[in-house]
Design a protein that fits this description.
The protein contains 6 helices and 3 strands. It has a single domain, classed as Winged helix-like DNA-binding domain superfamily/Winged helix DNA-binding domain (Arc Repressor Mutant, subunit A), CATH 1.10.10. The protein has 110 residues and is of the alpha+beta class. 18% of the residues are buried. The chain starts with a helix and ends in a 5-residue tail after the last helix. This is ArsR family transcriptional regulator. Keywords: DNA-binding, Transcription, Transcription regulation. InterPro entries: ArsR-like_HTH, HTH_ArsR_DNA-bd_dom, HTH_MetalResp_TranReg, WH-like_DNA-bd_sf, WH_DNA-bd_sf. Residues 1-109 form the HTH arsR-type domain. GO terms for molecular function: DNA binding; DNA-binding transcription factor activity.
Amino acid sequence: MKNNEILAVLKSLSNETRLNILCWLKEPGEMNVSLPAAIKEEFPGGVCVGSIQERSGLAQSVISSYLSSMQKIGLLESRRFGQWTYYRRNEEAIAEFLEQFAAGLQTKKD
């Protein structure tokens, strides 16, 4: 992960709502009361934009913009089912970010 990619993630997470969304998606079961079976099977951990919007209390257009930007930098994955779009955390990308960020902050010992 390059420095500009690390900076993009940090910039995204400097917004309280975007950070909250990433945290909320860590426990997707707390966000959705019931999911269609197809989503549970094909996209486990997916949460509907409407559920995220409802929890945030912000306009759906704002939340959709936040989710889209988080997807573009790799923090989230999305899948469309019919008229609904579902998002989930990209755990591999998050782990890579954390590893690279920590490595960049550590000092080398001789």
